[in-house]
Amino acid sequence: MTAPDTASQAPSSSADTPSSWRDGLAVYLQPRVLIVLFLGFSSGLPLALSGSTLLIWMREAGVDLGTIGLFALVGTPYTLKFLWAPLVDALHVPFFTHAFGRRRGWLLVSQLLLIGSILLLALTDPARSAAFVAFAALLVAAMSSTQDIVVDAFRVESLPESEQAAGMAAYVAAYRIGMLVSTAGALFLVSAYEGAGITRTSAWMWGYVTMAALVLIGTVTALAATEPEPSVRADAATSTQTAFTRVLHAATGAFSEFLLRQDALAALAFVVLFKFTDAFSGSMTAPFVIDLGFSRNDYAAIVKGVGLAATLIGGFAGGFVARRYSLAASLWIGGVLQAVANLSFSWLAIVGVNQWALVLAITAENFTSAIGTVIFVAYLSALCRNPLHTATQYALLTALAAVGRTYLSSGAGYVAKATGWPLFFAICVVVAVPSLLLLTYLQRRGHFEALGPIKV
């Protein structure tokens, strides 16, 4: 494989002076970066509610591992969101677009619908009807993915080049915090409701109701934000076109521009596979920890405390890596680290119920995953350049990235049953190899140099 190249983004000799460090910290306090940070929290919050948190609820309700594994298919909207992203790019929402703007209007609508779908999921009971749970979870995923379409476009369009890296690091860190709140935070809430004398089914319901209320953080942020200037200009440029024409141009322009690039298919395959190692292991992490003998509160406490710290440190470490090295070298670092981290779970499976082993495994997973995600988001952002269809292009890329989490990971439960936990997590390391081979190919073809440097 080609060795990582660090030359194209080596830092200048003044990169580590005290003034540059102060400037680097100050950029995280810019209003636009703070807006992106809170929107990142809003984007990360719902993912676990139809994912790992729901899987723990189902496992406690007695649903078998095979069915739980198939619930990865609930994430289908994340892989198909590019189909309706042109609507988000081109159509105006009655009242909301006029009152709040092209991006903010869609953002508010998607958040209100997301709250409603989470409340519907709260009313389900996995022990009685897995089909109804799947339907409600599918709605949550659909509304969440629509919110992601808008937030991604808003982030790319609202941040100037000097703030893009800080915005990516803040977004990813807040996204992971949102996921931790809806995993560990939700589990603590359920336990607290049970401790107050509420039945387990009702405790889960109120836990999800509380999570729905937290979506309002994103709603308040959207109200406080201003419409991105590139979005205003793009909307003005197409104001004389019919709705159908705008949708058609958003769809065809986004796809044709990308597919006409050199090595476009290899780049798309790389997008699908880069986070697959994370997705394959992550889809079974929660059931694994519960099966191993840890309590719900053990898992929640470690994820909430150590996992949160590791996520924050990993997110900003990913920003440092992107600043220090070329995009290709950064992807090598992130790709290898997130793959190797799976071995910590193999070790945990061998040693059994050991609090320190669980701490190490969760720390390794969150730290390396955050590094890989920040770098991956930097790569995806570099691929999106035109404000006329930012939402559509970014949705296409993130939808493809979700293929690993949704379809390729749907059989993880059956693999775990067939191999046992230690070997399963070793297999999770091996599945990273195809993405690294594609990274080698794209690096040799000059793909990353053609994108230009990622300014940090």
Explain this structure to me?
The structure is a single chain. The chain has 456 residues and is mostly helical. It has one domain: MFS general substrate transporter like domains (Growth Hormone, Chain: A, Up-down Bundle), CATH 1.20.1250. The protein is built from 25 helices and no strands. The chain has helices spanning 18-26, 31-49, 52-60, 65-70, 76-80, 85-90, 96-100, 102-122, 130-158, 161-195, 200-214, 216-224, 229-237, 243-259, 264-273, 276-292, 296-324, 327-340, 343-351, 355-383, 390-408, 412-419, 421-430, 433-444, 447-451. Helix 15 (264-273) crosses helix 21 (390-408). The chain is globular. The two termini are 27 Å apart. 55% of the residues are buried. Residues 1-16 have low confidence and may be disordered.
The CATH superfamily appears as MFS general substrate transporter like domains
Q: Runs with pLDDT <50, length 5+? A: 1-16
Strand and helix order: HHHHHHHHHHHHHHHHHHHHHHHHH
Shape: globular
CATH architecture tag? Up-down Bundle
Number of strands: 0
The number of distinct helices, counting runs of at least 4 residues, comes to 25
Q: What is the highest CATH level, the class?
A: Mainly Alpha
Helix content: over 70%
Summarize the structure.
This protein is mainly alpha-helical.
Task: Summarize the topology.
Layout: H1 18-26, H2 31-49, H3 52-60, H4 65-70, H5 76-80, H6 85-90, H7 96-100, H8 102-122, H9 130-158, H10 161-195, H11 200-214, H12 216-224, H13 229-237, H14 243-259, H15 264-273, H16 276-292, H17 296-324, H18 327-340, H19 343-351, H20 355-383, H21 390-408, H22 412-419, H23 421-430, H24 433-444, H25 447-451
GO molecular function, one term: transmembrane transporter activity
Keywords: Membrane, Transmembrane, Transmembrane helix, Transport
Protein name: MFS transporter, PAT family, beta-lactamase induction signal transducer AmpG
